[in-house]
């Protein structure tokens, strides 16, 4: 994980609850479900490829070679783990459609995805992929019928972490949790250069290059609503309002690890929620001078810190603002395996009330087994807006353990968390 500085909002990429479906009916009657953007020429009628020969070259499963028109004309071509495919060349050869196996997005063709029949079977769909590859490899005259289903909303489970999304821990400072959040970054409708090979003003794209603009735009909207908020306050609102459960009410899963439950090292504080971020109740604010003090506790020279800060810096011993004390919306306690039992770490934080006057918050802790977590004080009483109150979190390890995760929420009567 790079981009690990605490003043940077580091964003992972995850899926959305929208899918673009296609159903493949094999010649033996077996059905395999895939994804496709193809809509056909009539937007009011579902597109279909009637039963056609299914071509699969066992010697060139990734479709890297030029297609022989004699072999592929009038067929549906199956490609396994393709690197890049020229649909224009395939069209010239008379290919009816493509089926891509073992990919997660539509960035494998040089043709607009909605203009040429293309179906993908995602990496996690091992059963479907195995079924169609085995069928195409073993049958003498394999065939396939493709029914394109269009857009489906409410796809489950979603969101899920994309396999290409960078994971923690933070290379620069392991005590600063990264990424900070995750956001939509898979199969996103985005602006595109008309001068590109696709010759379109838009395309479906995937990457953290999609999720980062999402959060950047969200942050800009928060600044428009709360012009007095600092960048750190905006970042805090984005993080503390995020969620970690998908639309099946289970922990967000990780497609990069066979769909197991993801952790804060994958999604950070969670998936962003723009509506909740507008009214977070409390924020963890940080000033530029605090970041400088944080840098002073790292292995940088004064000259290097001044280059980052853009101002003269005076570092001195005794600074109480290392990673543990930086007013960050997350806590990372690192214990030495050789440390005695009941070792503890203390974190100091300051919360700023950006909600109503006379607001009362109670600390709610979800601590993993083997850790004892104490919040002091456990109740914060704000009498006015913009008031700041301090608290400490003491984390005590009762035994040696691997990486574990917990959660601290400050909850008021209005549902702020």
UniProtKB/TrEMBL annotation:
Keywords: Hydrolase, Protease, Serine protease, Signal. It comes from Taxus chinensis. Residues 326-416 form the Subtilisin-like protease fibronectin type-III domain. GO terms for biological process: proteolysis. It holds the Pfam family fn3_6. Residues 92-255 form the Peptidase S8/S53 domain. This is Subtilisin-like protease. It comes from the Eukaryota. The keyword Hydrolase applies. The keyword Protease applies. InterPro entries: Peptidase_S8/S53_dom, Peptidase_S8/S53_dom_sf, Peptidase_S8_Ser-AS, SBT, Subtilisin-like_FN3. GO terms for molecular function: serine-type endopeptidase activity. Belongs to the peptidase S8 family.
């Amino acid at each position: 994980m790079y981009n690990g500085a605490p003043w940077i909002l580091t964003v992972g990429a995850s899926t959305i609850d929208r899918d673009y479906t296609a159903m493949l009916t094999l010649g033996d009657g077996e059905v395999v479900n895939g994804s496709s953007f193809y809509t056909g020429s009539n937007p009011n009628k579902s597109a279909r490829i009637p039963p056609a020969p299914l071509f699969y070259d066992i010697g060139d499963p990734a479709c890297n070679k030029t297609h022989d028109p004699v072999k592929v004309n009038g067929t549906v071509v199956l490609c396994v783990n393709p690197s890049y495919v020229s649909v224009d060349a395939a069209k010239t050869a008379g290919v009816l459609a493509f089926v891509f196996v073992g990919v997660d997005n539509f960035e494998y063709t040089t043709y607009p995805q909605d203009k040429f029949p293309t179906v993908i079977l995602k990496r996690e769909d091992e059963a479907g992929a195995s079924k169609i590859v085995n069928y195409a490899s073993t049958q003498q005259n394999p065939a396939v019928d493709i029914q394109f289903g269009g857009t489906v909303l409410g796809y489950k489970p979603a969101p899920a972490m994309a396999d290409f999304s960078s994971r923690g821990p933070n290379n620069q400072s392991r005590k600063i949790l990264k990424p900070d959040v995750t956001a939509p970054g898979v199969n996103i409708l985005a602006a595109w250069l008309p001068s590109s090979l696709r010759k379109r003003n838009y395309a479906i794209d995937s990457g953290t290059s999609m999720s980062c603009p999402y959060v950047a735009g969200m942050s800009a909207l928060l600044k428009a609503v709360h012009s007095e908020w600092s960048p750190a306050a905006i970042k805090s609102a984005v993080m503390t309002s995020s969620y970690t459960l998908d639309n099946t009410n289970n922990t967000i899963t990780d497609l990069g690890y066979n769909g197991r439950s993801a952790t804060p090292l994958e999604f950070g504080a969670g998936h962003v929620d723009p509506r909740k971020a507008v009214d977070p109740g409390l924020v963890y604010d940080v000033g530029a001078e605090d970041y400088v003090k944080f840098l002073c506790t790292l292995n940088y020279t004064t000259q290097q810190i001044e280059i980052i800060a853009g101002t003269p810096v005076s570092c001195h011993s005794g600074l109480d603002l290392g990673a543990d004390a930086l007013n960050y919306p997350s806590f990372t306690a690192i214990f030495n395996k050789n440390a005695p039992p009941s070792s503890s770490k203390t974190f100091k934080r300051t919360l700023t009330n950006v909600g109503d006057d006379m607001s009362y918050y109670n600390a709610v802790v979800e601590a993993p087994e083997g850790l004892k977590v104490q919040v002091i004080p456990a109740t914060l009483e704000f009498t006015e807006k913009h008031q700041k109150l301090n608290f400490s979190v003491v984390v005590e390890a009762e035994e040696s353990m691997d990486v574990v995760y917990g959660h601290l929420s400050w909850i008021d009567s209005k549902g702020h968390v």
